[in-house]
User: Fold this.
Amino acid sequence: MDLVFLFISAIFVNNFVLYYFLGICPFLGVSKKIDSALSMGLAVTFVMTITAVVSWMINHWILIPFHLDYLQVVSFILVIASLVQLVEMFIRKISPPLYQALGIYLPLITTNCAIMGLALLASLNNYDFIKTVVFGVSSGLGFTLAIILMAGIREQLDLSDVPKPLEGAGIALIVAGIMALAFNGFIGMIK
Amino acid sequence: MPAKSLKEEYSKGLWKENPVFRQLLGMCPTLAVTGTVINGLAMGLATSFVLIFSSLLVSSIKKLIPRQVRIASYIVIIATFVTIADRFLAAYFFPISKSLGPYVPLIVVNCIILGRQEAFSSKNPIGRSLLDALGMSSGFILALLVLSSIREILGSGTFMGYQILGAWFKPWLIMIFPSGAFITLGILLGIALFIETKNQSRST
Assistant:
């Protein structure tokens, strides 16, 4: 039951973009078209799941037993950077179509704070292995949901009359604010 | 690159190339920690510490770093200073460190810092890199202070924890919620762009 709560709350209530403000750069940058938003969302979900597993192993098998927790930041960021490289090479080898779809988004993910945030939050909340994996998958799905909704709205926004200075990032942030407000309505689901 | 005066090297970060308002970098911490002025200020100072020392170090050892692994080296340097800042806050300012939560370690993925190393410190002498880092830090702190002051005053009627609006004031709860952060920053970006286009049309 705990896991179901965790899953739902990570998608709707504690949404990575709209609640933790993580991954704002791709959220604003890659949300102009629905299909590229979908690819970005899937790439993030994919990397998040793997990161969740690997960072848990590093934290619990290396850092904590040897009392090296102060190396957490350094080791997590290095692991994420090399992981993204590995995933990129791996996908290029086994599935060229998938690589075509995700290719250009993968390198961008290294500097995506959502991935680092996931590893840090999972360790901060002391999640066990299963919970960490569920947290990774559902956070990725939450990110995907937010970025697709945003892309849908922005495709419509292109057709409407936005005040000149607000064009681009300004209106996108205001829309995100209204979306966050709407997502507030989900808080009742877990309490 | 045309040589800029030293003063310009510092002051460009304040407005012309302000990391938040003009370059849209470092949005995540800007939105996340600006619920109260204290948090915004602490975040600004911590980020400045990391930015200034990373710039100094990168620009002084830039000849030793091979081109192919430069990004990885910058990341390790930045991560080291982030760890120092994180441990320092946890040791001396525990409540602030607690309320900033994962956002202090997340300074490591703040694009302002990596961006300045790649775009500036790796190509410029130490003095100029220091000025550039100081300018960018001031610009970042400025942006955080503006955003967090608006949110704290309207959201709870206080400034740095002191009540400044009277009992007649009904706090705008939305300002404390994440949505308040998005909307306020969106409007501020609009205002910044408006002022900038005004300036440009006047100067041409």
